[in-house]
Amino acid sequence: MKNIVICGCVRNCEPYIDGVFENIKVISSYCNVVKVIISYDVSTDKSLTQIDKYKTCFDIDVIVNKNKLHSERVVNITNARNSYMNHMNKLTTHIDRFIVMDFDDVCSSKINEDTLKKVFDHENEDTFQKCCITFNNSRYYDFWALSLEDYVYSVWHTNNPKKMMWEMKKIMTQKLDECNCYIEVDSAFNGFGIYDYTVFRHLRYDCNIRNTKYNTVKVKKLIQNGYNLYFKGIDCEHRSFHFKAKENDGKIIILKDSLFQPYCGEHASFLYV
Question: Could you say which of 86, 110, 134 is where a domain stops?
């Protein structure tokens, strides 16, 4: 079985902790979960108490952030993700892959074991080498982290985010319908990712808009298609992380299969009315 570290960020996630750890228990039947690393920002609920209940089941390290939180939520998440990356890199245990999962409603519904089995089956090892594996959902929501085809730029730094999301959804849906197993993209997350440790271990998250990290040809095509792009602000932290991986022969894929039940939260809900 593969040695896996599970990483996540927690702030005010109390209602979802039990569901997330029930899914971690299922995951642990398909791999060897050697550590759970949680970056914790001080909360107003009992998230930490809920996490402590599972220390008898799993080897859990909680990194408590004692610094003042930034006014921008994504900056705090970026710092939290880099904290678990730094912590994981100090572990002496052999690690094959690490899983990044959200500890909120996104990953608290019952996990699809058939999809997990597909990833961890031995015959699929060659298929998923050097990959970040993410997953489809019938109500896919994470369009800020998604970059595919010419749509490489942040949707929230354009003059028409909703139009761009509609167009991205149409392309992604068609490609997933037509593929056999997965599609390759420039960036994706959607709440849960399985990462090749060798490819991704030395990378860090960055939420700053940096013109140099975007494919200039694709950016020009977006502009030609009528989009105005804003080159200042806070980007999704996953995008630069995945771009860096692709520079090191890593692949970012979206598996055709869903890992969780249809997402019914507020994110991108207008796409599914």
Answer: 110
Average pLDDT over every residue of 19-28: 98
Note whether 124 and 104 are same-domain residues.
Answer: no
Q: How many domains in the chain?
A: 2
pLDDT category at 125 given cuts 50, 70, 90 is low
Quick one: tokens of 79?
A: 């710092």
Q: Which residues of 205-235 are buried (b: 16+ CB within 10 A; e: fewer)?
A: bbbebeeeebeeebbeebeeeebeeeeeebb
pTM surpassing 0.70?
A: yes
Instruction: Please tell me the distance from the alpha carbon of residue 235 to that of residue 203, in angstroms, as a whole number.
Output: 17
| Mean pLDDT estimate for the chain | 94
Which residues make beta-bridge pairs with 148? 151
Reply yes or no on whether the pLDDT at 268 is more than 90. no
Same-domain check for residues 81 and 157 = no
Tokens of 151: 């749509």
- Same domain assignment for residues 95 and 218: no
One domain for residues 130 and 81:
no
Q: 244 near 125, Cβ under 8 Å?
A: no
Last residue of a domain, one of 67, 85, 110: 110
84 contacts 230 by C-beta, under 8 angstroms: no
Are 128 and 238 members of one domain? Answer: yes
Nearest to 119 by CA among 30, 249, 183: 30
Cβ neighbours of residue 29 under 8 Å, at least 6 residues apart?
none
Range of the domain at 119: 112-273
Closest CA to 2 of 37, 27, 19, 23: 27
At residue 37, the pLDDT reads: 98
Instruction: Give the per-residue pLDDT at 9.
Output: 98
Can you name the residues that pair with 40 across neighbouring β-strands? 10, 64
Record the tokens describing residue 61, joined without a space.
């390290």
